Amino acid sequence: MALTILASTRVASAQELMVVNIPFDFAVGTKMLPAGEYSVKDSATLHTLLLIDRDDPAESAFLPTQAVDAHEIQSESKLVFNRYGNRYFLSQVWSAGKSRGRQLSRTDREKEMAQVARVETHGQVTLVASLPRTNP
Prior knowledge:
There is one protein chain. This protein is mainly beta and 136 residues long. The chain has one helix and twelve strands. The chain has a six-stranded mixed sheet. A four-stranded antiparallel sheet has the order 2-5-6-7, with no helix packed on it. The chain has a two-stranded antiparallel ribbon with strand order 3-4.
């Protein structure tokens, strides 16, 4: 089952920095982050590391990712979460205009939740993101 939630978005700029309002607490790597607005960007040099950021460093994460290919170019920037019951795990990050995204490895906790979810409700949630507005 796949659910799509449109997040509040901002206007695009030249940088590859996405902003998304995540309406639920979620796991990213081994860290739990609260609901709220986050900026998401990949490392400028390697593009294999992903930064999920807020004003509070305790509510941020820097994680390794792997490339993942889609069958078509993405029409919008988005974050994809795996949902198991009421638990959400960030799974993929996609940028509009590209057919290659970034995928996070499943943690042991997510694998455990996936085993339990085989007999319970599970699915994916996609949040549409945007690039931040620049001031003229």
